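Hi everyone, sorry if this is the wrong subforum. Our group has a chain we'd like a structural model of before ordering constructs, and none of us has done structure prediction before. Sequence below.
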Amino acid sequence: PAALGNTMSALIGIFITDSGDTEEITSDLEAVPAVEDCWFVAGEETFVIKVSVPDVGGLEEVIRVLNAVPGVARTRTTVVLSTKFEDRIA
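Answer:
Right subforum, don't worry. Here is the predicted structure as C-alpha cells:
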C-alpha cells in the first residue's frame, strides 16, 4: 500500500439493512479499489473491511462510497495508528 501512496489504513464495520443482500454487497465492496480485505463476521456488523488510502480525504471518500452501496445501513470506522505486525503465519 505505501508503494502506491496509501499511507493510511482503517478497519470499517459495515452494517446492512434487513433487506440487504450479502452477495450483492460483497460484489459492490470488491469493486472499491481501496478495500484490501473483507470479512463476513458474527456480531453487530455484517462485514468488517480493511481499506488503504492516501489520507483523511481519501478515507472520507471511501466512507461516502460505502454508505452509497445499496443495502448498507451505516458504517463504523476505526483508524489504524500503527501496525505492530500483520500477515502472521502460525
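For your construct planning: Helices lie at 22-30, 56-67. The CA atoms of residues 5 and 25 lie 27 Å apart.
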